[in-house]
Amino acid sequence: MGRARLRRGEIGVPGTKQINKDRWDAWARFGASDGRTVRIERTGRTKAIAIRAVQEAAAARVEGWRLDGEAAAENAVPTVAQLAEDWFRSIEPPKIEVNQIGNAVEASFDTSVRRQTFDQYQSTYRNHIGAGLGQMKVSDVGVKVGSDFLFGLIDGGNGLTRARLARVVLSSILQLAVDQEVLPYNPVRNIKPLPKRRAKPKALNEPSLDEVRSAVRSWRNQPGTFGPPNDGTLADIVDVMLATGTRIGEVLALRWNDVDLVSSVPTVSITGTIVEPRHGPKYRQPAPKSEGSIRKIPLPQFAVDVLLRRRACSLPINTVDAVFWSQNGTFMQPSSVRRSLRSALSAAGVKFDFKVTPHTFRKTVATLLAREAGKGAARSVIGHSKEETTDKYYIEPVTQVEDHRDLIEGAFGRRPEGKLNRST
């Protein structure tokens, strides 16, 4: 019967033989890494030295396997950059194709991330995460490293947005390491919350709104003013935003087939938005920001008047059938409207203690509706799925309480007769 095969790293009973007075030969069977049994042989001046040399040779082979295994394991741990590449590949949406009239062409597949969000994630990784952590092994990015990195992106009150985006991207990359069983847990989830902005929503009161509307109507109407004359488009956009509480991208995405001015209740249907990606052409996306943003909004009469006038003067160059068309007959861009609004307010010398943007009109509508018709009405018109979002980010807090002096006077105003007891 043959001798039993030794297990990996196991050494058999050494054998010895004296070669001459100053030399002994020793050997032993050894379980090799590939499962075979091999012979290790060494010599020494004495029998004990020869046996010890065989045992040390076997131990050296086992240690070599351990070091090789550790090196292989170390090499198997990917860097943040390597996992980032895998993550971006897994979530990348199809490239946006735009037809001749500026509409996004429906893609053959979709992902959970929209193209503009994907581009934003990539920019955040490239500018911040890749530069700071990209070459580190993911196993070296623990809670402290991640926390120091994210909070290091905040400079006083600045950088909160980039830090928040970086947290989302870094957490997603390290979660992929958890899914691949490279990490036991996601360290970003144990990082304390990032600070939040304390700015409260600001809405325009009636006098301030009158100033703004006057400024956009008088803009570039004076002789010698630089730039094309004011054709009333900016004022019309402001009026429709005030009538609907819509986002600037939603207003500019309106087409005439989204407008119903003949029904007993005139409406506009919000079915899309204008997207200005970091890369590639600008386009009309055939869906607004969220499912809750798809809505049909009844129009007050002043908005109906604006839309009737614009429909009557729509030019043949308006090939996209837009309610607000550009000089080239395409959809207007939100960035262009923002610049025009800043220019109009600056030319008129209109200044407040907060910055007025197209989004200010949306907050103004939300504040009015919340105070007069309730927060539920504000949420419905604004197009939020949660009333908490409308309340927190869009409705300006009330600072002037209602006048209930008569009620309090009647209940507590009369004092009982008698003197006050005073302690001496």
UniProtKB/TrEMBL annotation:
**Species annotation:** Arthrobacter flavus
Q: What is the lineage of its organism?
A: Bacteria, Bacillati, Actinomycetota, Actinomycetes, Micrococcales
Query: Is Repeat among the key words of this record?
Result: no
Residues covered by the Tyr recombinase domain: 199-409
Q: What is this protein called?
A: Tyrosine-type recombinase/integrase
* A Pfam family it matches: Phage_integrase
Q: Which PROSITE patterns match?
A: TYR_RECOMBINASE (PS51898)
The reply to whether Disulfide bond figures as a keyword in the UniProt entry is no
- What family is reported? Belongs to the 'phage' integrase family.
Q: Source organism's superkingdom?
A: Bacteria
Matching CDD domains, A to Z?
Answer: INT_ICEBs1_C_like
> Could you tell me the keywords of this UniProt record?
DNA recombination, DNA-binding
